[in-house]
Specification:
The termini are far apart. 18% of the residues lie in helices and 23% in strands. It is elongated, with a radius of gyration of 25 Å. Among the domains are: 66 residues, no CATH class; 30 residues. By secondary structure, it is of the alpha+beta class. The chain has a four-stranded mixed sheet, with no helix packed on it. The protein has a two-stranded antiparallel ribbon with strand order 5-6.
């Protein structure tokens, strides 16, 4: 994805939809900063060129090779932050596993069959029970309101 020399002052919001990009060029743009979540989900990104004043997203530890030339910085070979020697700020809770989520970013995915907040719930979501209760409450409230409000609608 070549976005070089596009007069970008900030990362375009549509960039979040290009998470499958392997090569990204942002050079020759007057970018002042790259927000931390700009490359959230860019797990396949292997080469990123940014203007010289900017650092590689995730820092030097997130890339295997960082090369600086006269006008740009080339970040190559995204590292898996889960396998790094740098300790994670928030380790994943029990019943979950760390997964990369972009340069220097991680996410915790629940192991099967766990789900929910901090992967503490086991089994599957009780869809039938939830749908039954929600349907019963909706029909009951609708009938109650119809019965109490219909005389006002006739006048």
């Amino acid at each position: 994805l070549d976005l070089s020399n596009c007069s970008l002052h900030s990362v375009p919001p549509g960039l979040a939809e290009a998470t499958t990009a392997i090569v990204l060029d942002l050079t020759e743009n007057p970018l002042t900063a790259l927000p931390d979540d700009s490359f959230l989900g860019f797990t396949q990104l292997q080469s990123l060129a940014v203007p010289l004043p900017l650092e590689c997203p995730g820092g030097r530890d997130a890339w295997q090779d960082v090369t600086v030339d006269s006008s740009s910085r080339l970040c190559q070979g995204q590292r898996n932050a889960c396998n790094s020697s740098v300790e994670l700020a928030w380790p994943c809770p029990d019943n979950s596993v760390c997964a990369p989520d972009g340069p220097g970013l991680t996410q915790c995915l629940c192991d099967n069959p766990f789900h929910g907040y901090k992967c503490l719930r086991e089994g599957t979501f009780p869809m039938l029970l939830f749908g039954g209760i929600l349907g019963t409450v909706t029909v009951s409230l609708s009938l109650l309101l119809w019965g109490t409000q219909r005389r006002k609608a006739k006048t």
